[in-house]
Amino acid sequence: MGAWAIAVHGGAGVDPNLPKERQEEAKRLLTHCLDIGISALRCNLPAIDVVELVVRELETDPLFNSGRGSALTENGTVEMEASIMDGPKRRCGAVSGLSTVKNPVSLARLVMDKSPHSYLAFSGAEDFAKKQGVELVDNEYFITDDNVGMLKLAKEANSILFDYRIPTVGTCGAGAAAMESPLQMNGLPISVYAPETVGCVVVDKEGRCAAATSTGGLMNKMTGRIGDSPLIGSGTYACDLCGVSCTGEGEAIIRSTLAREVGAVMEYKGLNLHEAVDFVIKNRLGEGKAGLIAVSKNGEVACGFNTTGMFRGCTTEDGFMEVGVW
């Protein structure tokens, strides 16, 4: 019997001018989710059940960019995506293009458990959800007033906005900043803020690792755009050694297969978890901006990021707990 550990994140790339009350609100939610995970692990739930349970909670709260409160596409709609992976047999499930499924991570779990496939998207995923009897809601459920306002901002700036809820110096200033931003994605201008994807990684007492990630994507993204969050090996990965969930610039995470890289350098270079996380953040992202959380089969927990901050929290069975932003 080993020791359990859990980590959660609410996105990498935080506005340095983020209001103090917003920081505290995020910390409270992350702490609440850790408490849910701790209770589940003390009741001996397997890691895969715990990551689903915690990410469902994050999807239900509109604070971060997943489930309710998801970013809006260029057409003002929501297209959500999520993935989940069970380390022991590397079983996985992923979904994209969801517009009515209340908890995308649970549909990803059903793809893993109840279908012969690993990934379903758009109308096919929605049809599967109906057949499985998951809770469906109107697209309007996911849309908040803040997001409608920030989509307007993004369109005025002719840009993709990342941390769309927190303009630096008011509406006009945020639009100007987006237009003048030197940061680019695939050669096109974007704003300086990173997306607030959510994720959870867990190792249980049996040494089983699991990971799950969920997001609404980018504000003002092209319809049909798919990021790293549902891509196994990029945004999410779990194996017999570790579980990893990533967040940040999706295109950079995809190019570097960031989540898989953590497991790969542990396996092939013999690095421990902390060394592996440090290595991939420093050597695999290029100019991309991202972060990740990870656990190992030995009960270790680690996080790393090259952005200004990352909403994160972690705890281990021996009583260690940390919740932070910067």
Automatic annotation (TrEMBL):
Q: How does it assemble?
A: Heterotetramer of two alpha and two beta chains arranged as a dimer of alpha/beta heterodimers.
Instruction: Could you list this entry's UniProt keywords, alphabetically sorted.
Output: Autocatalytic cleavage, Hydrolase, Protease
Residues the record lists as binding substrate: R225, I226, G227, D228, T247, G248, E249, G250
Instruction: Enumerate the active-site residues.
Output: T197
Q: What is its EC number?
A: 3.4.19.5
A single Gene Ontology molecular function, please?
Answer: beta-aspartyl-peptidase activity
Name of the featured protein? beta-aspartyl-peptidase
Query: What organism does the UniProt record list as the source?
Result: Gossypium stocksii
